[in-house]
Design a protein that fits this description.
Length: 979
């Protein structure tokens, strides 16, 4: 790697990207030490490509050229390279030119891509990154001169989705395009990301050849077990056993009769996938061998990485860096393996003793133990043909390939109808929810989240933990369309139903069975699960299969029924009882299955069966093509049905997700300047105050030094954060990107800043959130003066941390109509609770009467930005009556948020009270959501209490916490995460 040199090297511009063909490359700034790499790259480029780049023959680079193309100031002149191994495969650069006639800062941009790398999407990826660099440095427009014959490059610019103009002069096409992200450019970026990441997974799951590295000479061991499973599964491609300890001259492994090699380099045919089962100390040599051989991907089963402590974490980072340097992706380390049951592939590169049957369910797990449990459970469960597996990935420490990548793959995988996932951590929660939302719109995504209550990161997962309660995490996942369940058993139960049955139109469940007691238990289970069961219909123990068929068919035909739950117990034929003489015995469960399948044939409503010890019934009901899921208990069936109901409701809402509204009175640039001043940070964008810190900011005013200028201007994350509205509301609801300055230089070290309330009110006012003024009252005279300024009636309240929002402690006096009452209240307050310096009293004008609520927005490293709402007061806090939505929230999210709490009736005229202004409350929620989304420095913002009156809302207090943000890998130019 080149040694960075002055000016300061922008490390945060380095990125790993997935290319169109599924391979990887590193994008990084070009530095002076790259001179030899640049010359070698240029020599590999054809004369035709050089001509198209320079508009004239340019066979070689002069010393002046090399110096110019490797020395940059990273402001006015920027060059990036796409690197594989230690070689450049493409370059891009921009040079700032004179501003346009309209004053827009602009730069000229040009690419050069190695001929054998064209068509891999390298130029498109470089354009995204150079555009992000330019926005960060204040450039707002790119200009490119292209020869008409250079159709490939014109297509790169045209397809990017930016707003552009085209002109033709002197035989050259001039393209001008704005760098501000647009709805189309964001959609293009996400579509390219999806195709590239899906292709990278497809290369891992459908290899034409596999080398198992670490196959022992004796039976047993990890490598030999995987090889045996590959053979037993009928892998259709070529197999190789690799072990450096094989004797010279050994070319076959017996008794498997598989080609044997001492190194993957000795294989004289292409190898698509390498399964690595060697000690961690030997993995680096194996990775280099695979890279030199052109292997496309690795499944690393070896342990001893991040789960083993600090040294292991460093070893894991080196593994990923090394593999990506060779253009390979990694599943693992500490992985359990991968499975693809498609007939053209039949890949079982796992350690599973009982692989699942072939089916249409995709499974991802971060745990080998859970992987074994899932595969074994699916394999052994009666009727598991309904949930046979299409593909399976157990990613272990998931240092590279993660659940996000699998969601990209499964989104348009025609062989997968349902996705089941066991997750212990979310490395990129914003991206996960975006991808889950998109995938859930076309197929169910069922997730069980492990480590929900530990608030810690599982060993081996180099990601931040979360302090958000498990209930909140589940609510946020459900908002994204995820079917969030609590256990692995429920994961399979729900997947079984969703894979086999249509979605219910509502919660009304008809219960039909031959046992009154079992029917009543099923009724109670449905009520407990939030369903609306109809009174059970008891067919009595004398019911024959024909009776079941007629009853189920009748229930399905009823308009008031959305689903049918059948309960069945064994019966015995009795020739002495006419009603039971012809009833099949236990051995004839097939007759009942045939009857139920006939009744459900062609139905648009789901049917599930709860049975007690009817041998053979689950298998008979599961037979394709119209299988019916079975459950051993009513509770399990009811929970699965309830999950299906909620998912169906989400699917209907997803068709109209709402939008993130645009408010004309927002001032993001001014807020960015205020926040920068509060963080005491240099090099930030000037807002409406010309870059001077407000006089209320800590440390007083600050002015930029000579030359600081606009080149590094812009609030961090603002430009990159423009895509999240489209993610939340869908492409149809995406809003135009705000003209916010782009990310600047890296943040300095710092601790969170608790902003003084007056300063917090000023920042929030930039987003149309007005906090009712409160004036300090250190003594009775100051209190009287404050009241005279604000106007009576007033409130007197304490603001000390230990007393804030604690009216139960007597720290608030309301409706003080005159000075005498105010002075008396001040004396009582300080006499009861402590001296004025301790309780910090303030005077505030009385707000209109209404319902006291709390609005919060917090950024949690484990789940992302969260908007929360609840009623103010101890009962709500004690009962946890809060609702949550992901940021950015849409207008539909805001409306649902205030209706999601149990205390919501108080807002809508409970017991004859006047309804309050919920429209104003929803607008407040949306404004706060936009504020937090556009300023990643915001750690938390709390408005409490917010009094919602019949007309309008009043924010009585605001608390704001800021901190230098970590890089937001979910925003900006696409890049792979680096843990």
């Amino acid at each position: 790697m080149a040694t960075p040199s002055a000016p300061e090297y922008p490390t945060h511009w380095e990125a790993d990207v997935v290319l169109r063909d599924g391979g990887t490359a590193q994008v990084r700034p070009i530095v002076p030490d790259d001179a030899d790499r640049l010359v070698a790259f240029f020599d590999r480029v054809s004369d035709e490509s050089k001509y198209l780049r320079f508009f004239a023959p340019h066979p070689r680079l002069s010393a002046r050229d090399v110096h110019r193309f490797t020395h940059h100031d990273y402001v006015d002149r920027v060059g990036l390279a796409a690197v594989v191994g230690d070689a450049f495969i493409a370059t891009v650069r921009y040079d700032r030119i004179e501003p346009a006639a309209d004053g827009a800062p602009q730069a000229e941009v040009a690419f050069l891509v190695q001929d054998d790398q064209q068509g891999r999407g390298v130029a498109s990826a470089l354009l995204e990154h150079i555009a992000a660099c330019a926005r960060e440095r204040g450039v707002r427009r790119f200009v490119a001169d292209v020869l008409p014959a250079n159709s490939r490059m014109m297509k790169v610019f045209t397809d990017a989705g930016y707003t552009q103009k085209r002109s033709f002069e002197d035989g050259v096409v001039r393209l001008e395009f704005e760098l501000e992200p647009t709805e189309r450019s964001l959609a293009v970026m996400h579509a390219r990301e999806q195709r590239a990441e899906a292709r990278s997974v497809q290369r891992l799951l459908a290899p034409r050849s596999v080398a198992v590295i670490g196959v022992g000479r004796r039976p047993g061991g990890v490598g030999r077990t995987v090889l045996a499973n590959l053979l037993a599964g009928g892998f259709t491609g070529r197999l190789y056993a690799v072990n450096h300890a094989y004797p010279e001259g050994q070319d076959r492994l017996l008794p498997e009769d598989v080609p044997a090699r001492r190194s993957v380099r000795d294989i004289d045919e292409p190898v698509d996938l390498a399964v690595v089962a060697v000690p961690a100390a030997r993995v680096p040599d194996v990775v280099d061998d695979c890279g030199e051989q052109g292997v496309q991907g690795l499944v690393v089963l070896s342990s001893g990485y991040a789960e083993a402590g600090a040294a292991g974490r460093a070893r894991q980072r080196d593994l990923v860096r090394q593999a990506r340097g060779h253009g390979m992706r990694v599943i693992g380390p500490n992985a359990f393996g991968v499975l693809n049951t498609a007939p053209p592939v039949r890949l079982n590169a796992t350690l599973a003793p009982d692989p699942a049957d072939s089916g249409r369910v995709g499974v991802f797990t971060q745990s080998g133990a859970i992987g074994i449990a899932l595969l074994s459970g699916l394999h052994r469960r009666p009727g598991a043909v309904l949930t046979g597996v299409s593909t399976f990935v157990s990613a272990g420490n998931r240092a590279d390939v993660s659940g996000n990548d699998l969601l990209q793959y499964w989104h348009d995988d025609g062989a997968t109808d349902v996705v089941l996932m066991y997750l212990e951590s979310l490395g990129n929660p914003r991206k996960f929810t975006r991808l889950a939302r998109r995938t859930a719109a076309v197929k169910p995504v069922v997730v069980v989240k492990g480590a929900r209550h530990s608030a810690s990161t599982p060993p081996g997962h180099a990601v931040p933990g979360t302090s958000v309660p498990a209930e909140t995490v589940g609510a946020l996942l459900r908002q994204a369309g995820v079917v969030a369940v609590d256990t692995v058993t429920e994961l399979v139960d729900t997947g079984l139903l969703l894979a086999a049955q249509p979605l219910p139109a509502g919660p009304r469940v008809a219960i039909v069975g031959n046992s009154d007691s079992l029917g009543l238990l099923a009724y109670d289970a449905c009520r407990a699960a939030g369903l609306r069961p109809l009174p059970p219909r008891d067919l009595t123990a004398a019911a024959a299969p024909g009776d079941f068929r007629a009853a189920v068919a009748a229930a399905l035909a009823e308009d008031g029924c959305d689903a049918v739950l059948v309960t069945a117990i064994p019966w015995v034929a009795d020739p002495d009882v006419p009603a039971l003489a012809a009833v099949p015995g236990p051995q004839d469960a097939g007759a009942l299955a045939d009857a139920l399948r006939a009744a459900a044939a062609g139905a648009t409503k789901p049917v599930a069966v709860v049975h007690l010890e009817i041998e053979g019934l689950p298998g008979a009901l599961a037979a394709p093509p119209d299988g019916i899921p079975t459950y051993p208990a009513g509770e399990r069936a009811a929970r699965a049905l309830a999950q299906a109901v909620r998912y169906a409701q989400w699917r209907r809402r997803a068709a109209d997700p709402g939008r993130v509204p645009e408010y004309d009175d927002l001032d993001p640039a001014g807020a960015a300047a205020d926040i920068a001043a509060l963080l005491g940070e240099r090099g930030r964008a000037a807002g409406d105050e010309g870059g001077v810190a407000p006089d209320w900011a800590p440390g007083g005013a600050w002015r930029p030094a000579e030359g600081d200028g606009a080149a590094g201007a812009g609030p961090a994350g603002a430009g990159a954060g423009l895509g999240t509205a489209a993610d939340a509301a869908g492409a149809a609801a995406a809003r135009t990107a705000r003209r916010t300055p782009a990310p600047p230089t890296p943040y300095p070290e710092g601790v969170p800043v608790d902003v003084p309330e007056q300063a917090a009110a000023r920042v929030l006012r930039r987003y149309g959130i007005d906090v009712l003024p409160a004036l300090p009252a250190p003594d009775p005279d100051a209190a009287a003066a404050a009241a005279a300024r604000l106007g009576y009636p007033v409130a007197l309240k304490t603001t000390a941390v230990h007393l804030r929002h604690r009216p139960d402690l007597g720290g608030v006096r309301l409706d003080l109509a005159g000075e005498d009452q105010l002075r008396l209240a001040h004396a009582e307050l300080t006499g009861t609770l402590g001296a004025a310096a301790e309780v910090q009293p303030v005077v505030q004008a009385m707000a209109p009467r209404g319902v006291d609520t709390v609005v919060r927005a917090t950024v949690d490293p484990g789940v992302g930005a969260v908007l929360s709402f609840g009623l103010a007061g101890a009962p709500s806090e004690l009962l946890g009556d809060l609702a949550h939505r992901l940021v950015p929230a849409t207008d539909r999210d805001a409306a649902e948020l205030i209706r999601a709490i149990r205390g919501a009736p108080l807002l809508f005229g409970w017991r004859g009270a006047q309804p309050v202004d919920t429209a104003a409350l929803e607008e407040l929620l949306l404004r706060l959501s936009i504020f937090v989304d556009e300023h990643p420095e915001v750690v938390s913002a709390e408005l409490s209490p917010v009094v919602v009156a019949p007309q309008g809302v009043s924010v009585l207090s605001a608390a704001l916490r800021l901190a230098p943000p970590p890089p937001r890998i979910d925003l900006g130019a696409r890049r792979m995460p680096r843990y």
